[in-house]
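Suppose a colleague, Dr. K., hands you the sequence of a protein chain of 379 amino acids and asks what its three-dimensional shape might be. Before reaching for any lab equipment, you can write down a predicted structure in token form. Begin with the sequence itself:
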Amino acid sequence: MSEPQASPPDQFTIDVTTLSPVAQKLLDPAGPPPLRNLAARAIAPGLKPNEALSVCVVISLGNDALAETARTSLAKLPMPVLNGALASDLHPGALHAIAPFYATNPEIAQRVIMHPRLHDLTVAELAKHASEAVAELISTNEERLLRCGEIIENLYMNKATRMSTADRMIELAARNNMTLNIPGFAQAVAAIQGELIAEPSEDRTYDDVIFAKAEEIAASDKTTDEDTHEIDEETGEEKVKETQVQRVLTFQEMNTSAKVRRALLGDSKDRMLAIRDPNPIVREAAIKAPGMNENEVTRISANRNTSEDVLRIIASDRDWTRAYQVKLNLVSNPRTPFVFGSRLVSFMRESDLKKLEKSRDVSGAIQNAVKQHLSRKNK
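The predicted structure, expressed as tokens, is then:
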């Protein structure tokens, strides 16, 4: 069973006293159980569709079996009730309650989006779950996007949103000096600088096709490895795993803004591809991606092919450097800028310091710092 819904914001609270006496009677816990059960299914006799839906929404906010029935009903409303309700003066709270359930149905979603009592936050909620077609409908209203940045945020983080649409929204936000709560927003803005932003179109652009292909490849990838590369035992160099060749080639086909978004929305393999990308904008988006975890950071910090800028970001992050292995990897990695690696020497265990002192794999500057630290400790 699903959890009871949280109490809605004030603007979405349906004032029961404004409903008809029949509706209020159906909402009375002491009312006839058979009629209350019908009301929880939005088919209560004697009520107009908009009021039947409103009653169902109010019931759904409870925490009993009847509320569970109502929540289930909201996801599959009878078409006469849904059509009648959307054609009438429906309460914003009712619209907000049903919108996510119809986010992949362009016909119904369009009617929700066009409703005069629709609240911007309902559109933002719809944007989280929208199909590609519905995302296109939402993105055409620039006035609404500018008024409610949360809509842009949710559409951008929705994998179904076309890449060209994501670019247009980022460009719109940047042009109007909006600051959005999107991980890697600065990198997303930087990625479109100087790029030709495609106009809205019924057809997908090349960038849309490649981005969608990358998602399809990721969704069908059943391998459990977290990386696309492995070490060649003969040469000691990194090479692409045979199972990941198509994913790597597809990633390489994407433009910078698509790589940034893929780094933010993709899985571990996508992030590792982005970490290796020659463009620092893409690398920075990857290391700051919301899905980045400690295991990945440990692996990245140990990799001698990792770029200095990524190692600098890791070394500057207090959360990542809480892990001892990450600190040790940064000190040991010759690509870590000395100013950051040297700061971590004092956190090393003595046994590791002695290994670092004799290692040929660390930089000479770090070796000197280690020797000086050991000398001060042994005095």
